[in-house]
Amino acid sequence: MTTFAQNDPQARQRARQLAQAYQAQGDFTGWFEALYAEGRAGQALIPWADRAVNPYFADWLTAYPQSWTGVRCAVVGCGLGDDAEALAALGADVVAFDIAPSAVAWSQQRFPASAVHYCTADVLHPPAEWTGLFDFVLEIYTVQVFREFAQRQQVLHQLANLLSPQGKLLLIARGRQAGEPIGQMPWPLAVSELAELVKEQLYLDGTVGSVEELWEAGSPPILRLRALYRKGQRS
Ligand SMILES: C[S@@+](CC[C@H](N)C(=O)[O-])C[C@H]1O[C@@H](n2cnc3c(N)ncnc32)[C@H](O)[C@@H]1O
To answer: How far does the centroid of ligand 1 lie from the alpha carbon of residue 197, in Å?
Structure first.
């Protein structure tokens, strides 16, 4: 049985091993399927999967209540599905996708009566019919798994493309401070990098108006970034 693994050094080490092995072969994302397949077989822990709604997303939902009924949402790199389920429980119409078929199958197994449409898809090559379809896109810890700036740029470009006019993107990422090296996986995002990535495609939404830098207690403390963007004109 997979348990809370976020601070488990072995879980992170196995994920790093797989990431390194696949990326050395020029395959940047294949390691996710390998890890989820091991996880499903009870042979590994998934370092980011705590089987609960992401706390920074849960806080945000509470802080900025709105009517979600019928709002078309996409959850990118949905992992084991908890965040997608939270949106569906509020009445949203949710598509949740992941590049790893085992993550999708695992989510469907965990939530057999779910209203969420789970599917396998690559954020870099989304189905054409998704262009401009979603009022709300949720991305948690997925942009950052692309190690290179050019790849991150492509991902942001695709996320912007998924949004309807005036659609909103909530991004939650592991952060790093200015000048801090990117280090090992999970390859945190810097605020300055984020500003470059969203440039001319997305604008910070006026509700919060800035990238929030949220410090999580720990030794050392962990920086999380949370930002709400929208398509369209600057607020
Ligand atoms: C660090 S995990 C975060 C998962 C989930 N959002 C969470 O917070 O628990 C990144 C997720 O993105 C997925 N992913 C990686 N590359 C992807 C791609 N090109 N398209 C869609 N999903 C991708 C991985 O399989 C993995 O589930």
So the answer is: 18
Tokens 């000048």 sit at which residue?
179
Q: Tell me, using a 6 A CB cutoff, whether residue 102 lines ligand 1.
A: no
Please give the Cα distance from 56 to 64 (Å, whole number): 12
The answer to whether the CB of 22 falls within 8 A of the CB of 51 is no
pTM over 0.90: yes
Specify the ligand 1 atom closest to the Cα of 79. Answer: 27
Per-residue pLDDT band for 74 (boundaries 50, 70, 90) equals very high
Of 121, 228, 104, nearest to 172 by C-alpha is 228
Q: Which two tokens stand for residue 163?
A: 């949004």
The reply to whether ligand 1 has any atom less than 6 angstroms from the CB of 98 is yes
Domain limits of the chain? 1-50, 52-230
Q: If you classify domain 52-230 with CATH, what class do you get? A: alpha beta
C-alpha 47/C-alpha 147 separation (Å) is 18
- pLDDT tens digits along 38-65: 999 999 899 999 899 999 999 999 999 9
Residue among 48, 142, 158 whose CB has most ligand 1 atoms within 8 A, to mutate: 142
Which residue owns the Cα nearest ligand 1 atom 5?
Answer: 79
Phi (first) and psi of residue 5, to 5 degrees: -125, 0
Protein residue closest via CA to atom 17 of ligand 1? 99
- Backbone Cα Rg of the chain: 17
Closest-lying ligand 1 atom to the alpha carbon of residue 33: 25
HSE-up (13 A, CA, CB side) for residue 115? 14
Q: How far apart are CA 194 and CA 145, in angstroms?
A: 14
